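Before we proceed, please read the two lines closing this message. Tell me what the token row says about the fold.
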Amino acid sequence: MSDNYRSREERRRAMNDNKPEGKSQGKPKKKKKGGLFRKIVAAVLLIGIIGLIAGVGTFFAMISDAPKVDDSVLKNSFSSKVYANDGKTVVKEIGAQKRTYVQYDEIPQVVKNAFIATEDVRFYKHHGVDFYRIGGALMANFKNGFGAEGGSTITQQVVKNSFLSPKKTVKRKVQEMWLAYQLERKYSKQQILEMYLNKIYFASGEVYGIERAAEKFYGVKSVKDLTLDEAAMLAGLPKAPTTYNPVTNPENATKRRNTVLNLMAKNGFITQAEADKAKQVDVQAHLAKQTESTSKYDVFIDQVIEEVKKKTDADPFSAGLEIYTTLDTNAQDYVDDVMNNKVVNFPNDKFQAGLVVVDNETGGIQAIGGGRNRVSGGLNFATNMRRQPGSTIKPILDYGPAIENLKWSTGQPIKDEEYHYSDGTPIRNFGRNYKGWVSAREALGRSLNIPALKAFQATGADKAKEFATGLGLKLDKEDGEAYSEAYSIGGFRTGVTPLQMAGAYSAFANEGMYNAPHTVTKVKFPDGTEIDLTPKSKRAMQDYTAFMMTDMMKSVVNESYGTARAVRTPGLEIAGKTGTSNFSADEKKRYNIPDAGEKDVWFNGFTPNYTISVWTGYETAKDGYILSANETGMAKNIFKHVITHISEGKPKGSFKQPDSVVERSVEKPTGKDLKRPSGSTPSSLITKEYFVRGTAPTKVSQTFVKKEKEEKKEDKKEDKKEKKDNKDVKPKITASYSGGAISVNWSAANAASDTTFTVTMSSPNGSEQLASGAGAGGKTISNPAPGATYSFTVTTNTGESASSSVKVPDSSDQATEDDSTKPEDDGTTDDNQNEDNSNTDQNNGSDQGDDSSTQPDDNQNSNNGSNNGSNNGSNNGSNNGSNNGSNNGGNNSGNTDNNNNDSGNANDGNSGNNSNNGGTTTPPADNGGSDSGSQTPQTPATPSTPATPATPQQEPTTEN
């Protein structure tokens, strides 16, 4: 057979070899179909079986240590302990005290439907776990981000809050699903829903369970009395009890209630018409008056509870937790005293305040002032109330981003001028005026709006928003209104809280590191599990930005132009910023608010250790407005008291300058560029500013160098002009003899008002100064020595001079009474030559009054020297010389009066020169009524003539 086989095989091959190429040798053999597919299916099945075995094994491993379903745990609650920041002091034990358990049959169907439509619409269809809902949640999270929607059923929520820790792990989720399945096997749907509605947390103040919530919010005696809109409101609360609280956040509460009503209509529990009707009810219309007062530390613990629920999903009222907090009991006790009117005097009971104290290094909240006259569950003005921040936003949105991104210095020049927003809307400063070129430091210190907007625009809205977001502020679209330039000066629509502002400002004090403000550091569960809830630090800005902004805010407190000088505290380094906001035109009109009335007043300040944000104002516009000095200063007053108290006995610290910053002296800004001062810069215009290293100016200002050169040039011109003017001054002096006396007169052509004259006389008895003072004048020399020659010289303060002389006739020549000589100068014409005996007294009116009061004893009046002679020509500055004829006929010739200060004391400073030292005054012959009673020189003209004794002068009879 083998041979035959081989021969047949050979024969076949031969036949194939003989076939023509390219032609088919018959139909090809068909391959079996599905071989590869079967292999793939088999591989998948094998992997699936292996995976299933592994999964089942893993599943049972995960649930092996799951807690048992315990009836006592499901229906009973375990209180939680809250510890202060020392980790030892229990400040409160919370939970189970304010629960009212209600049976399933006592809960109205509208309440059940509201919760089922909102929390678990397939509640009656699944067996503890709703895989359809899990799939939908996965898709929602894929589209909108993780956490957009949860997949837990009501049964799972009961399990999670009763048995498990809040750790978000696969193991915990598997155990939750397993226990939910076990719970569904053991209890009916009605029992599970009853457990849920009695365990759920609704609001601060330990509002726990549906019955307690109905009583708290609506004042009803039983849950059976709730209406549709009320049931929908309560069903919407558990998702975020604080955010949707109708008492404190009516806008958010209204939106949430309407969402629940829509879900009820969508899933057939009510009609759309019923839903629309319920939406028309004001969310606060049926609310009960909140009268239950808070107990010690409740304001702080409310924040603790919210954080624990948000970060762990655990229920502090039933989970038996140990909660470790950042509470400083000393600080909180003092803040409570402030709120209770024990430290500061609030203007009235409706005036409100909210404050938060934060540790700069950790972000831990030390104390919270939630408001005055608060009730349990009421509005917390520190953590829940949002108001416009006013100018306190400027470090965050304006100057901080400019330093961070543009490396502005603290002295950056900005022109404060008439300006407008990008859309053309005008912007004004509070004072309605402009300062011109100012530094960024001064602009912030004065709280100028225009430079702040310019800083915001220079950085850009996006960069500014990014900076603020890094400090914990959310500036996304609010109710359809986009973030805009108005935000740069605090024009927010919704606003910020003191909690947010305290966290943001603390980063400036912490070298640019931001720690989200928090009240809880860790939570310990009954099974020993611990969760660290301390936020991680992150860098919000460069260290140079933090330091330079801090230094600018120190100027707000320390400089004379600063708006927060009132918070200065000895021994504490304080920086901060004030802020105010105004009412809308509609509010002013509706509530009759004056233009000066303010809505909000803030002060956010910090030391190296602590940051405090303080808000003051009224809850609503109808409650009042801020106007008085006590009201406008209350935020700063509260800050000062609190920061002083919490800093006592602790290291004060200081703000340290980083290596990235340098300090340089610069000229105060007069233009867009900063320059170093020159040697000519006035010290008052030199200031010190901080710069990012490498950006300090190097150019030296030439402003005052040029001014100095110009001033010197002008001085030279003035000197030349003055010298020229002085050369034009030509003094003149004349001397003449007449009637037994020598009359001397001097003046100057082109003399200025400040030109002074010095007149000297040379006689046989020697030389002496005859007169000195401003203005032209004259002098009379009585009883000159016969035959003697008298020479006179006048010299001006400009150095020009002129001379004149006169010879007195001998006794034999007395017939010639007028022997005047011409001046001995360079031949210039004397304007007074023709006025020797007829000079007119320019002050005639005043002299006449004074002189007419003297006694009529013409021949016996003596001159004792103290009055510098008689009125005859003694007042050189005002009487222009000899006073000839000025005293109405000479009735006062020769009169002197030791007590009459008006009769000759103003003798151009010549009191000593004109004193007669007991010399004789001889009355000259009557010369036509001229007042010729002049003094003789100090030495008698005729030595042989004895001095005539002085006759006492009587007191003048007129009043001066």
